[in-house]
């Protein structure tokens, strides 16, 4: 892997940041917390930027992506920033026609529906078509306080394939899962191509200054354990094997109670748990060779602050003060979440765990 563009001394300054220590399962001065979708529509500062530019344009303008990333981390006082981008951006250079339609979420106008369609899935070439993302990473790294780690991310092959085949969001993924069962060879080829492109993309984020990586396999919980092991885990192993392992990798999914050990076996130093599993039960299943991230129900943030604190206490008790817990939600912050409740959660976790 290429050397980081950020100076080594600056990376050294972050080595002992609570978030990176927890990723390595080392004791930290505080239980670190950051929140998935911490930059988003619930935040007025984000909406002000979005009033002026479309979502894709925001992702493609490094100075704006940098602004919303850094602003969100500062406002909340979290222990890590996450690159502002989207898991679907990688589909464009692979040959997909991606649009974020107003009020409808993502649309892919040329989804894959038969094995022949795979011919138009291009490999990610070295003439960096996603260089607006690496530019954003560099800019964010140069703008953030030197002690604050930056998380880069990408979508995992299964979750990306769901969008590439369904052509957008889906409740049951019947089109994608039918493709998987009807054309197992083509499915494997598609997932391998997505894995290879994703490895190039994520390694470029590390080279540009990302201190950790998260893979979002958001919809993987729709699979049975046997389908996961047979049809998805091989591509995940391939992906993790190609990733720069000098930075911690967070492997996240939702609804994964029955998949946790299989996800762990595929790779990642940190496993994301959603709110459907008790954190202690999940960590017990995973064993003590991985760190865990999670897992407050995002809807708890709509509750009164004392109730948010009570739920946070319960999760901290489940973690039992063991090194290697990164506090987060079970899934992303929802639009409409009160910002002061999010801040109250961050402050409370810090207050309760500072040692
Ligand atoms: O966490 C962060 O703050 C970093 C930014 C980030 C976004 N999307 C910004 C975004 C991250 C990490 C993502 C990941 C992502 N994108 C996932 C995986 C995470 C998850 O929630 O499971 C998925 C499935 C997507 C695909 C996607 N992007 C959908 C389905 C939508 C539309 C639904 C929605 O919430 O609007 C998006 C749009 C999107 N990505 C927004 C943001 C802030 C909202 C766009 C807007 O400003 O209107």
UniProtKB/TrEMBL annotation:
Substrate binds at residues 37-41, 86, 163, 218, 331. GO terms for cellular component: cytosol. Keywords: Cytoplasm, Decarboxylase, Lyase, Porphyrin biosynthesis. PROSITE patterns: UROD_1, UROD_2. It is found in: Cytoplasm, Cytosol. It comes from the Bacteria. InterPro entries: UROD/MetE-like_sf (IPR038071), Uroporphyrinogen_deCO2ase_HemE (IPR006361), Uroporphyrinogen_deCOase (IPR000257). Its EC number is 4.1.1.37. Residues 32-41, 151-167 form the Uroporphyrinogen decarboxylase (URO-D) domain. It catalyses: uroporphyrinogen III + 4 H(+) = coproporphyrinogen III + 4 CO2. It is an enzyme of class 4 (lyase). CDD domains: URO-D (cd00717). GO terms for molecular function: uroporphyrinogen decarboxylase activity. Pathway: Porphyrin-containing compound metabolism; protoporphyrin-IX biosynthesis; coproporphyrinogen-III from 5-aminolevulinate: step 4/4. Catalyzes the decarboxylation of four acetate groups of uroporphyrinogen-III to yield coproporphyrinogen-III. Homodimer. PANTHER family: METHYLTETRAHYDROFOLATE:HOMOCYSTEINE METHYLTRANSFERASE RELATED (PTHR21091), UROPORPHYRINOGEN DECARBOXYLASE (PTHR21091:SF169). HAMAP family: URO_D. Belongs to the uroporphyrinogen decarboxylase family. This is Uroporphyrinogen decarboxylase. It comes from Isosphaera pallida (strain ATCC 43644 / DSM 9630 / IS1B).
């Amino acid at each position: 892997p290429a050397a980081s563009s950020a100076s080594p001394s600056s990376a050294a300054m972050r080595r002992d940041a609570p978030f990176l220590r927890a990723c390595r399962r080392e004791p930290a001065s505080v239980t670190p917390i950051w929140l998935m979708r911490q930059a988003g529509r619930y935040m007025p500062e984000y909406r002000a930027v979005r009033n002026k530019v479309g979502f894709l344009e925001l992702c493609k303008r490094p100075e704006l992506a940098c602004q919303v990333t850094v602003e969100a981390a500062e406002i909340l006082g979290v222990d890590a920033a996450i690159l502002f981008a989207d898991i679907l951006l990688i589909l464009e250079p692979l040959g997909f026609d991606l649009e974020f339609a107003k009020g409808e979420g993502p649309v892919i106008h040329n989804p894959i529906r038969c094995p022949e369609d795979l011919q138009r899935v291009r490999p990610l070439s070295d003439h960096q078509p996603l260089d607006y993302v690496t530019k954003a990473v560099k800019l964010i790294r140069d703008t953030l306080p030197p002690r604050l780690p930056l998380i880069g991310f990408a979508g995992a092959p299964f979750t990306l394939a769901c969008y590439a085949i369904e052509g957008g969001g889906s409740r049951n993924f019947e089109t994608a899962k039918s493709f998987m069962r009807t054309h197992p060879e083509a499915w494997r080829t598609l997932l391998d191509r997505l894995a290879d492109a994703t490895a190039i993309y994520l390694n470029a984020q590390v080279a540009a200054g990302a201190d950790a990586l998260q893979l979002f396999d958001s919809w993987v919980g729709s699979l049975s354990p046997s389908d996961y092991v047979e049809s998805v885990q091989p591509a995940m192993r391939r992906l993790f094997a190609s990733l720069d392992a000098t930075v911690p990798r967070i492997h996240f999914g939702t609804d994964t109670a029955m998949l946790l050990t299989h996800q762990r076996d595929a790779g990642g130093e940190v496993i994301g748990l959603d709110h459907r599993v008790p954190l202690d039960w999940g960590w017990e299943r995973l064993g003590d060779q991985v760190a865990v991230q999670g897992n407050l129900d995002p809807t708890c943030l709509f509750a009164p602050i004392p109730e948010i604190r009570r739920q946070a206490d319960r999760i901290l008790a489940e973690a039992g003060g063991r090194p290697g817990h990164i506090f987060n939600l079970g899934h992303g912050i929802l639009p409409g979440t009160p910002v002061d409740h999010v801040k109250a959660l961050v402050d409370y976790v810090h207050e309760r765990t500072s040692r």
